[in-house]
Amino acid sequence: MAGMSGTAAAPVLAQGLVRRFGDVVAVDGIDLEVREGEVxxxxxxxxxxxxxxxxxxxxxxxxxxxxxxxxxxxxVHEAAAVRRKIGVALQEAAIDPLMTGRELLRxxxxxxxxxxxxxxxxxxxxxxxxxxxxxxxRRVGTYSGxxxxxxxxxLALMHEPVVMFLDxxxxxxxxxxxxxxxxxxxxxxxxxxxxxxxxxxxxxADRLAGRVAIIDEGRIVARxxxxxxxxxxxxxxxxxxxxxxxDPARAREILEGFGQDxxxxxxxxIHLKGGASRMGPVSRALDEAGxxxxxxxxxxxxxxxxxxxxxxxxxEGADEDxxxxxxxxxxxxxxx
Amino acid sequence: xSALRQYGALSRRSIVNTIRxxxxxxxxxxxxxxxxxxxxxxxxxxxDLPGFPRVDSFLQFAxxxxxxxxxxxxxxxxxxxxxxxxxxxxxxxxxASPVARTxxxxxxxxxxxTLGFTQAWIYLGITSLFGLEVExxxxxxxxxxxxxxxxxxxxGSLAVAFGLRTGSNEAVxxxxxxxxxxxxxxxxxxxxxxxxxWFAGVAGANPISHLIxxxxxxxxxxxxxxxxxxxxxxAAGLLVLGIAAAAAALRGRLKAAHG
Lengths: 336, 259
Description:
The structure holds two protein chains of two kinds.
Chain A: H1 2-5, E1 12-21, E2 24-34, E3 39-43, H2 50-57, E4 65-70, E5 73-74, H3 79-85, E6 86-89, H4 101-111, H5 116-129, H6 145-157, E7 163-167, H7 175-190, E8 194-199, H8 202-208, E9 211-216, E10 219-224, H9 226-233, E11 237-241, H10 248-256, E12 268-271, H11 279-288, E13 295-299, H12 303-311, H13 318-323, H14 327-335
Parallel strand pairs in A: 3-8, 3-9, 6-7, 7-8
Antiparallel strand pairs in A: 1-2, 1-4, 4-5, 9-10, 11-12, 11-13
Helix pairs in contact in A: 4-5, 4-6, 5-6, 6-7, 9-12
Chain B: H1 2-19, H2 22-42, H3 58-88, H4 90-96, H5 101-129, H6 137-166, H7 169-174, H8 176-184, H9 197-205, H10 207-220, H11 225-258
């Protein structure tokens, strides 16, 4: 495949990847290119085809059609070589609850042919990295969800993979554990590991990924950096909160020069041309016109808006994300 | 070397798993003993029947049954654990690693064999407290425990095959009563010399009868090459059949993903 050889250095490269289960097309001809050293976010709702794609890229599922090269090897014809170079933390941390964290790390080392002295060194370092040194000799059955995910991450890192696949690493975690896991993904990436991250949480993709592909019903509907994607949706919305007694008509006149009217959910709002950098001028103009202002709120488009724009639907699980944040964002979403 | 380490590590894991699930293994260990206690108490006089083999007690007659029963029941755990690995995703983790595919089976079978071996010694130890004498002596006891290990691995591999096919712990547990049928339609609790009609035919055709009789001969008569070879043939047959079934089931499961 000439197109693939040209970019053979890409840690993950897929062309026309298809997976059918009977009549159901789970993945419908997707192309992907993940660059070395990046965190690539693969975002989509439940059932969009994220996990099926990851399972094909990690040699667990044979593609019905198309081709994928991971860490320089074909996932079908050189599956064993792919397995040696990738780390995989699948959805719902598949960890034997009867074993201790340390035992599992040692087992993982043996499965990857790492000798004992090296295995012991990495075991201590990884336990320390994921903050499980104190719990290392407890059975995994006693771990919390966050601890299991962290152990899963450590297991996937034991053989120092070139590419790390994290399939919905924070689904079901409480907000604190989610933040802790994000930090670990960042650290992992900072050490040079390429990360392929699937998630149904737009915020997760936004915070962690350098580039994002959004998948829906087995097809990629948008791709780019989060900023590019959001920019495509449109300008951010600026809400201007006026104190009692202020003159909204005067304020509106001033704001007309900065962008078109937007639904501010009870407040004055505009689609702010030029983005956040124009907030200062707006503030100054209002001040100079003698319009008192209680507050200015800038609402950037989210990846959920990008998804909405592409599919006409909202991401599943996005509501959960929103609920953890300020209600104002929920109103913004309600309107979009 | 690396493959040997993998075999060792997965076997150890399998054994450790068994030890750490007392709720799963204790009944399989204790139930045959309770059965033995009941039959030994209820049927002891039956040893006086004309045609009954010459034995010290019904306990001596039936201990071979207890050992086979224990290894049959214990082996179910291997299949159940395999199914749990599939249900819990650990199987997929193994498949996603560069582990030799054979070690997935070898680990489980080594676990089942170790369990069968250990159970035999536990039963022999406990029954000796109640006066059991093994006519074949220490050599016979070693042979019994080795056959029990092979039976454990054989039935274990059948259970593993079933676990791989169904991927369901419940389905594996549900197959448990089949083992009762195998046992009851054999010479497990009564000598074939005293059976008549269709039951004698069924018991004669049931390989479990020959397995138990071979082990029993070591206990009640001593080292009898013919009987022992019968038992070994059944155990080895079970193992070959089981490994073939488990290997086919493993290929089938991997192919389902890769086909």
